[in-house]
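Hi support team,

I submitted a single chain yesterday and got back a structure, but I'm not sure I'm reading the token output correctly. Could someone confirm the output below corresponds to the sequence I sent? I've pasted both exactly as they appear in my results page.

Thanks,
R.
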Amino acid sequence: MIRTRVARRLVLMAGVMSSVMGMRAAAAQTIAEQGVRFDIPAGDLDHALTRAADQSGMHIFFPSAAVAGKRTAGLSGVSTVSQALARLLAGSGLSWRLRDGRTIIVAPDDKGAAIMLGPVRVQGKAPVQAGLYPYDRADAPAAQGLERRVIGGTKVPTALGENPQSISSVDRTQMDLQAAQSVPEALRYMPGVTAEVGGDDNRIETGQIFVRGFNPNEYLDGLRLQAGTWATPQFDAYALQSLDVIKGPDSVVYGQASPGGLVTLTSKTPTDTPLHEVRLTGGSWGRFQAGVDVGDRLNASGSVAYRVVGLFRNTGTQVDHTTLRRFLIAPSIRWRIDPATSVTFLASYQADPEGGFYNQLPYKGTLLRNPYGRIATSTYLGEPGFDRLRRNQFSVGYAFEHQFLSWLKFRQNFRYQFLDANYNGVTSDALAPNLQDVTRDGYMARETLNTIALDNQLQADYRTGPVRHVTLAGIDYQHATLAQQDWYGYLKAAELNIFHPVYSGFSGTVPEIANAHTTNDQVGFYVQQEMKWENLSVIGGVRGDLFDEQTRNRLKSKTTHQSQGAVTGRIGAIYRLPFGISPYANYSTSFMPQVATTFTGAPLAPTRGQQVEVGIKYQPRKIDGFLTLALYDLKEQNVVTADPVHTNFAIAAGAVRSRGAEVEAHYAIGRSLRVVASYGYVDQKITRKINGYRGGALPGIPRQTASAWADYTVRQGGLEGFGFGGGLRYQGISFANYANQYHVPGVLLFDMDLHYDLGARIPSLHGLSAQFNISNIGDRKYIASCVNLGCYYGLRRNFMGSLQYRW
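Hi R., thanks for writing in. Yes, this is the structure output for that exact sequence:
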């Protein structure tokens, strides 16, 4: 087996050489200013439009149902984009309109949505509308419903209606309307996803999310976000353009993956339409935050553009003695070197001087009755002046793309990220026999994490007879170095009364229990094939991974080394029937390396996941929206569990099965009404013992979840510009421990939003809007989850009001 460290150097050298070759090839190309060279054979119209988009560098969106069965005479030679579209659409009953400088929408003539325009080269700046609805935003997606193309799932822009996999998305507009402040909050209305499991304990956001009963991995702009224990990357929702949740195992194009799925984040990057936004927000617990999002062209042609996102947040929480504070700056620059080549540089810096807190509370007084009453949701069991989580993260990278030929494209994505975390925490132990006092332990951690992620992709679009192919081949590389120190021990302080806490301060010393330096490398090789023949789409792929890790235990002066390998695959098909109905089926696998070792020092085998999924996607012809139904059978093996023979050691012997169903609906009626609804059911069972238990479900995972949210904006009359919305979220019963002996009650929560575009009726206030949100309107006091009989309260009523100005 080739050593991973050698493969790492080969991948880095290949990536750099490919970039240099792409730049040179781009510089050697010359394209007439007045046009673009097209090479589109006669054939299916959908394929012709896709090739036109690739060859022109434009984004062309079209409803698959409208072009199904239509053919075109093709095009060859140099012409303007408008001339090319006129020839391709001739006799089809379709026309097009320019949405912005590089986005074109194709639609039937009889809808009145398509307006023939002149050449697509646009000079000057387009006006920016200030409303909150997606069609009013310059950076909103141009296509909705199942026609919307997403990168997640295949790494190739693929329409949701052509991907035989369950994918749920949240766009920027939905996050704005719901005032989502974090990734877990943005996922509140998504089926099969349990967010905010830790309630008000928000130190590690990814630990709050479960997909189909498993904790997912996070990817940003197509590259994995590697993490330590406390040096864990967190990206503020304000800096994100969208979030996609890829359901089920998906290691083929991504590598390490949870069997439940992936959460893929997309950063805000430069757009062709100028953006200028300033937002001030206040709310419950003394919240104050200010955000700025500005972007524009840097030259007359628009080939170079920038965007800068900035945020400051300072807020208290529902828990005493706790504060959250954040500083964020995220600049990006896009350079279209020529019509065939582009590169986007991205950077971000985020400082969290107050990054969260530990607040697990005893189950007697939260979940179960305590004769002295119920523990207040504001109760803080830490130690003021000692507890803290300070986190800094910095990243820099780029996304490069070059079109070698009309059918061949190369992409390279790269990111370097640095994180450091300084954590002090006082944690509570068992409740004393008097049911009022808890003993407490002191814990400290210092972590520094440096990571590199690189992904090289080669994409070929071609035909064999009536079959359209998209072949993706790639090599990706991940590297991480983690320096970690931990101290833990009994805190020499008086026991704390959970009903009337009196804090005595920290005294004594806490012994060092860990001091390690870990380096890991992973190289993956993958091939994916997409084929489309008439209404049938098939996707399959295979991947091989090499994983290498070396850990230096500085306390014991001992070095351990382990290497692992894995092969994963997927296959799926979807068929579009009349009336917009598309049944699909898929089978996929995943793997996740284990970093621990057994009592003998042998590495734990990687966890493995397999899933069978079937479903239906439905898109009505005359309504902008879609409905999806998914049924799945998901299994995970080699789950880490306590060694029953050797205390404080682990083995990879557990297994979990998760079966369920998900329903999701998204609809937009005109430019006024937007509706999202979902339902998720998961039947989880431990099939091989985990921590001594078998036959039950994992703690903290509700069997049922449901949600619905709608927003309406008045577009004319005396209330023009006024909008309102609301939603409900239901979280069903879950279990409090592996023995499943206690149930955590379900809860139904209500949210609402009001917003008003002041410029809709008062021209002098153009660009100014106001918004007001309330989450958990009824101020329900509820338990978000319990793990091993330690419980977390959910978030109580939260008011938030904001003013924003766009110009």
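A quick pointer for reading it: Helices lie at 4-28, 45-56, 64-67, 81-89, 172-177, 183-186, 251-254. Let us know if anything else looks off.

Best,
Support desk
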